[in-house]
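ingest -> fold -> write
write: protein_1
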Amino acid sequence: MSQIQISAEALKKLAVDEVVPHRSPMILIDQLLKHETDTLVTQVNVSEQSPYFDNNINGVPNYVCIEYMAQSIAALAGVEALSRGDEIRVGFLLGSRKLKMHIPYYKLGNSYQTRVSRLYQEETGLAVFDCQIFHGNSLVAEANVNVFQPQDAQAYISESMQEDNQ
């Protein structure tokens, strides 16, 4: 599958909700920073308005990193779909492997960059991504994330529900 790389200028003009099939307040990433073939870098700016912000720790709990990764993967899929002239489709987080969280929380006032790179993808829509979150040059979280993006999400959900009812 041939991909067109989107320039940094064009990428910065895109709002996250233009490439991710989520709506506020469930959009957790704030900016699209850099696109290369099979790779996207996004940014999260932690504020008191950030989803999952916890006043007790003055930040966002570290386990939210998996959603930062998943939404960055969704953003990559959306950027790629736009570059091909396709529709933005829903995907599903299947799980992660090798998850390591090197900090206890994402601190108020700090910005974090998530880099997602496709390691493997099947025609069926199953894919594996190498994900890393950085604060400056420090690696603060990492994982391999497994996702599935069916051609028809509604049919997939209906089929799964029928199987569950049997």
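write: protein_2
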Amino acid sequence: MPKQTVSQFLYALGSRISDGVANLAAHPVAQIGVVLFCLAWFLLPLGEDATAVLTLVLSVMAITLTQMVLNQQKRHEVALHLKIDELIHAMKGARDEVMGVETASEAELEALRITGDKAEEVLAQRRGKPAVTTEVGP
């Protein structure tokens, strides 16, 4: 196995930490803890300085946690796209050009849709059935 570079190691470490924190924050006990913490924060007379510090800490935590959850969702989305691409590639009769379409421009997507409609029309004509088209706008 080739040796990891420092950047690969840091990326893998960051991904593991991000994934772990996102999973921990999604746990029901963590959700209850946050609600209880917020209730205590509002009900206890802490003073202006403590309230300002808590506001700062919670703001930083909210931004950080949001980024961690988005990172986790991005990795899951990439994995799902890879699985779908593999299925498209393995399916007989599927159009391989739709693999990786998530990175295509709007014009490329429209061109693929049109070629797919034309392929459906040809297939329907071969079977002797009317084709169903999905015309969109002018």
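write: annotation protein_2
The mean pLDDT is 80.
The chain is about 75% helix and 0% strand.
pipeline exit 0
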